[in-house]
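User: Show me a protein chain along with its predicted structure.
Assistant: Here is one chain, sequence first, then structure tokens.
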Amino acid sequence: MTSPAPTLRPGDQLASTACATRVVVVRARADGNPVLTCGGNPMVPATGAPPAPTTSAAPVTLLGKRYVDADGTFELLCTSAGAGELACDGIPMTLKAAKPLPASD
């Protein structure tokens, strides 16, 4: 019998098993635990993650960028770039756009 996956909270660090991508949860859903994948493989807690496979592919997940799900209720910050695409519940996550600054006089 397997125990259910722990609920993700802001500050949790996750790692990909498919590439070198590592992320930190910035905003999490209150209603449950989404299924996060990178490159089609589930993401795991960064503390027990196996070493990232080496690849020469161009990064798809960019260092320092924020990614959000389709509803904008779940947000990740990329702390290590990788070749895999982030997805939440099977739907690709999108790059979060910067908020425009107010005009100055």
